[in-house]
Design brief:
31% helix; 36% strand
Length: 125
């Protein structure tokens, strides 16, 4: 498999969503399979959005707000970083995730040009 591209799967669901034990088992199986196939780079569930702290700096002042930065019905619940050969492959991988049946998975390509510039800047320091 050509794994030259990376995509972030951002998994979102409603604030009241609670996964069933069967769904959790399916997710564990998906993670195991993705690791065996060398597709999953990293991934984790996240603590609930109400436990987050949003940080913004405006006009030289740092503003902290407890909770999610927006009030959308769906909140970020987990992420998975995958490596694959194309966007089509990334979409197929996302569609195979058990959470795709009960939540929304946003698929975003990692911006490779920007990380090269950041790495070069860090090396210069």
């Amino acid at each position: 498999m050509n794994a030259s591209m990376q995509f972030l799967l951002v998994i979102r669901h409603g604030a009241s969503f609670v996964p069933s034990p069967a769904l959790v088992a399916e997710i564990i199986d998906w993670v195991d399979a993705a690791q065996r196939h060398g597709v999953l780079v990293d991934g984790r569930p996240l603590r609930p959005a109400h436990e987050a702290t949003s940080v913004r700096t405006r006009g030289g002042r740092t503003l902290l707000r407890r909770g999610c930065f927006d009030s959308a019905d769906e909140q970020v619940a987990a992420f998975a970083l995958i490596a694959c050969g194309s966007e089509e492959e990334a979409l197929a991988i996302a569609a195979s995730h058990p959470m795709a049946r009960v939540a929304t998975i946003e698929v975003r390509e990692v911006w490779r040009g920007l990380d090269v510039a950041i790495d070069a800047d860090a090396a210069d320091r």
